Amino acid sequence: MAGRRTSKRRAPPWLAPLVAGIVIGAGVAAGIVIGGHIPPPHAPHHPAAARPPAPHPPLSPARKPAAPVSPNHTVPAPSIPRQNPEVSQGPAVGPPPEAPPVPWQGRPRVAIIFDDAGYSMRTAREVMEIGRPVTISVLPDLPFSTAIAQEAPARGVQVILHLPVQPDNLAIPLGPGGITVDMSDDAIQKAVAADLATVPTAVGANNHMGSRGTSDPRVMQAVIEVMKARHLFFVDSLTSPHSVAARIAQQMGVATAVRAVFLDNQDEESYVRGQFHALIKIAQSRGQAVAIGHVGKVTARVLREMLPEFDEAGLQLVTVSELVR
User: Fold this and answer.
1) Strand locations in the chain (E)
2) Burial environment of residue 157 by CB neighbours within 10 A (0 to 12, 13 to 18, 19 or more)
3) Is the CATH number 3.20.20.370 carried by domain 109-322?
4) Which of 316, 281, 276, 310 has its CA nearest to residue 293?
5) Secondary structure string (H, E, C) spanning 108-121
6) What angle do CA 6, 7, 13 make, to 5 degrees?
């Protein structure tokens, strides 16, 4: 009997790839378990098909890089009002006084008051650098009220209190130390005294806003009583044609004057120059005039530039205390 012939059977051709696939799959699975991720396969590099980088989103205003801060940086004071909110109440050029002008000898005189001081030393010093007698009116209880009141007289600038008085528009904030028509006489007098304490070198006062308060005889009498007791004068800023401030002051024997010209209802050089020219003509015709401008505007610079015109017109700049009567 012939013996059975044995031969080695070949593995089918598809088996080797299958086994290799199983091995590779097991390795990948192990990598997921151990490493937590599969490294991405290296795709061929095709520069033409490369995706451009995504643009950076624009910074919002809140995220813009801040400007460099000076080592001497300090928190700024509240901003200076850019215009008188009462300009529509009182004309920029006031009417002539009811009483006949007092005869004068010599040169016509002009007193210029710069209102709204107290927010900034820099703007107050612009007035102090004019080099002629002028008056600065300081709002009470602001960051620089007392410092300005102390420095200005040493530099030849007269100081008065810029007394906040209630306007017709009740939406306009008075700021610290304001006088309102619903206050009692005693409350008004205490408020005025407290305001003066923050402007210790004041030799008088004028009203800040006040179209409503200065038209109320009771309110103004309470204010003027403090002026009289302290031997101070009061200048009517004439923010309303209905103001009784000057009349009450005269009746109570307190020296007073009335504003003739608002210089800078518009903070523009050409406008301010025109108002100064109007002031020159009024002073020449009346013998004297009181004008009101504001710190922080072009007014101080324009005045310095126009001083030769005042001299050529024969006018003398004086402090406002020299024109009250």
Assistant:
1) 109-117, 135-138, 158-165, 204-209, 233-236, 256-258, 261-262, 288-294, 316-318
2) buried
3) yes
4) 276
5) CEEEEEEEEECCCH
6) 150
For the whole model, what pTM was predicted? 0.74
Kindly state the tokens that stand for 54: 């995504």
Distance CA 202, CA 133 (A): 15
Q: What is the DSSP letter of 194?
A: H
Beta partners for residue 207, in sequence order: 163
| φ, ψ at 25 (rounded to 5°) | -60, -40
pLDDT digits (tens, 9 = 90+) for 33-52: 344 444 444 444 444 334 44
Centre a 10 Å sphere on the Cβ of residue 224 and count the other Cβ atoms it contains: 24
The pair of structure tokens assigned to 255 is 């020296």
- Rounded Cα–Cα distance for residues 167 and 149 (Å): 25
pLDDT tens-digit map of 141-181: 999 999 999 999 999 999 999 999 999 998 888 999 999 99
